[in-house]
Write a structure and sequence with these properties.
Shape: globular
Radius of gyration: 19 Å
CATH class: Mainly Beta
Strand order of the largest sheet: 11-12-13-14-28-24-23-18-21
Number of strands: 28
Number of domains: 1
Largest sheet: 9 strands, antiparallel
Structural class: mainly beta
Number of helices: 0
Length: 350
C-alpha cells in the first residue's frame, strides 16, 4: 500500500488544503482531505472489473466547507441532533447553536466537519488531529481529537476516532460518507440492498428527536435484518419515514458491547455487484438516504448536481440526543478518559 500527498488548494487565509491518496495492491484507492478529516473518494472494481468512484463529493475543495450534506467528513463534537440545543452536564446548563429547525445538529455550523485539521502520514496510515478549545461551539472542555485512517491490501478501510478532554464534556463522533456503489454520478441508490444487524430502531417525534422508546422493526419498513432495498419503504408513514422524505433514523445494533468491534451490516448494489461490509464499535447507526441532497448541493466531482437519494450515509455513532436521555448509552466523556471508537468499511463484490 502506498500513500501520496499533494496540495489540493488553499483557504482564503492561505492555509493548505491537503489531499492524501492511499492505493493498495488490488488497484483500489481512497482519497482523504484535511477538511473535516474526511473521505473525498473511494475507488474499487465492480464484479466485472470496472473501477468507479463510489462516494459523493465535490470538484472544488472549498465546497466542503459549510456543505449541508457534510459529505465524507468527520462530524463532532456531537453528531446528530440535540433537542433545542440544550444539555446539562454535571449540573451546568449549556445552550448550543440552533442550526436544524429547533435543534442543534452535528456540533454546530462551525463544528469539526467544517474545520481544517492538522494532518500527516505516519508509516502506512494518515492521521488527522484537531484541538477544540473550551466552550468551542458552546461545549465545555478542551478536546484533543484524532482521526486515523488505515487501508490494507484486502480492501479494508478502518477509521479510528479518538479524543481526550481536560474536563467533562459530550462527545459523539462519526464519519458521514455517502455511498453510491454504482458510481457517484449514477443517480439514485434506492435499489441498493441494505442488511442491518438491528432488530430495533429509535422512535422519533416529528422534529427528528428520539422519544426514548425503542421500536421492534419486525414486519415494518425498517426491518433490514434480512436485507431489502431502500426504495420500498421511503414513502411509509411508519415512524415518520414519509415526513422525513425517506430514511433518517437511528438503528440500534443487536448485542452491542462497548469497545467491541462488531458487524453492523452490509450495503449491496445488484447493478454493479459491489458491496460494503460495515463493522463498528459504536452502538448503532443513523441511516440517511440523502433525502435533501438536491437542496443547494455544490458542484459535484463529475461536474453536475446531486439529486435527492443519490447517496446513502450509514453513520455509525452513539444515540442521538443521548445527553438528554439517561436511559441511552452515554456520550459523556469524563476528564482524562480516552474516547476510542472504530468504523470499518470492507469493500468487495458478490
Amino acid at each position: 500500500m502506498t500513500i501520496e500527498q499533494h496540495i489540493w488548494g488553499a483557504t482564503p487565509e492561505g492555509e493548505a488544503i491537503v489531499m492524501y491518496t492511499m492505493r493498495n495492491t488490488l488497484g483500489s484507492e481512497v482519497r482523504l482531505s484535511n477538511i473535516g478529516a474526511g473521505i473525498v473518494s473511494v475507488k474499487f472494481a465492480d464484479s466485472k472489473g470496472k473501477v468507479d468512484d463510489v462516494v459523493l463529493g465535490y470538484s472544488n475543495p472549498m465546497s466542503y466547507f459549510g456543505d449541508g450534506a457534510a459529505a465524507g467528513k468527520t462530524v463532532g463534537r456531537v453528531a446528530n441532533r440535540i433537542a433545542k440545543g440544550h444539555m446539562v452536564i454535571e449540573g451546568v446548563e449549556y445552550d448550543l447553536e440552533i442550526n436544524n429547525g429547533e435543534n442543534h445538529l452535528h456540533g454546530g455550523s462551525k463544528g469539526f466537519m467544517n474545520r481544517l485539521w492538522e494532518s500527516s502520514v505516519e508509516t502506512n496510515r494518515v492521521v488527522f488531529s484537531l484541538l477544540s478549545d473550551n466552550m468551542d461551539q458552546g461545549y465545555p472542555g478542551e478536546v484533543n481529537a484524532q482521526v486515523i485512517y488505515d487501508f490494507d491490501d484486502e480492501n479494508s478501510l478502518e477509521i479510528t476516532l479518538m479524543a481526550k478532554s481536560d474536563s467533562t464534556t459530550a462527545l459523539n463522533l462519526t464519519n458521514h460518507t455517502y455511498w453510491n456503489l454504482s458510481g457517484e454520478n449514477s443517480g439514485e441508490v434506492l435499489d441498493h440492498i441494505l442488511k442491518l444487524n438491528c432488530s430495533h430502531v429509535l422512535e422519533m417525534n416529528d422534529k427528528q428527536i428520539p422519544t426514548g422508546k425503542l421500536l421492534d422493526v419486525k414486519g415494518t419498513e425498517m426491518d433490514f435484518t434480512m436485507g431489502h432495498n431502500l426504495r420500498d419503504g421511503i414513502h411509509s408513514s411508519f415512524n415518520h419515514i414519509s415526513d422525513f422524505k425517506g430514511y433518517d433514523h437511528f438503528f440500534v445494533m443487536d448485542g452491542w458491547k462497548k469497545n467491541i468491534l462488531s458487524p453492523l451490516g452490509t450495503l449491496y448494489d445488484p447493478k454493479s455487484g459491489r458491496k460494503v461490509e460495515i463493522l463498528t464499535s459504536q452502538p448503532g447507526c443513523m441511516v440517511y438516504t440523502g433525502n435533501y441532497l438536491a437542496s443547494g448541493c455544490p458542484v459535484t466531482k463529475s461536474g453536475g448536481r446531486y439529486e435527492d437519494y443519490c447517496g446513502v450515509a450509514i453513520e455509525c455513532q452513539g444515540y442521538p440526543d443521548a445527553v438528554n436521555h439517561p436511559e441511552f448509552p452515554s456520550v459523556i466523556l469524563n476528564e482524562g478518559e480516552l474516547y476510542c471508537n472504530k468504523i470499518v468499511f470492507r469493500l468487495g463484490t458478490n
